[in-house]
Write a structure and sequence with these properties.
The longest helix has 24 residues. The chain has 135 residues and is mainly alpha-helical. The protein has one domain. It is globular and about 55 Å long. The relative contact order is 0.13. It has six helices and no strands. This is OmpH family outer membrane protein. Keywords: Signal.
Amino acid sequence: MKNFFSTLLVITLLGTSSTVNSVFAQSNPEADKTSAMVSKKMLQVLRLNELEYIKVKELNLARISKMTEALTKYSHDQAGLETKLTEIEREFEANLTEVLKKESFLRYADFKMTPEGDVLALVKNASAGNTTPAK
């Protein structure tokens, strides 16, 4: 019975993955690259299992795509941009709490304070054509 539920969970996550990928298929290559880089680093630092990694990768792609869009849409409205970025980050972290165990989420709190975890800086650098992490 446990194997059945594990298989069902994998199928559900893979279905969600393909849905997310089709929704963000038009995302730019830099967003994809940044998302992959952040997700791989989170895999290591947060010690994610395979299912957690798949879900975190989806969440990062959605977050980074939304951030990239917001940077363009609100380029002349700093207050609107800050509000939108805060909203995106809150949504990401709310979804992340549903995926991660408590210990992993506590490691995430430390991770997001590092240059590799400063996703907004990474997105801004990628938008500017610079792919190295901010220091």
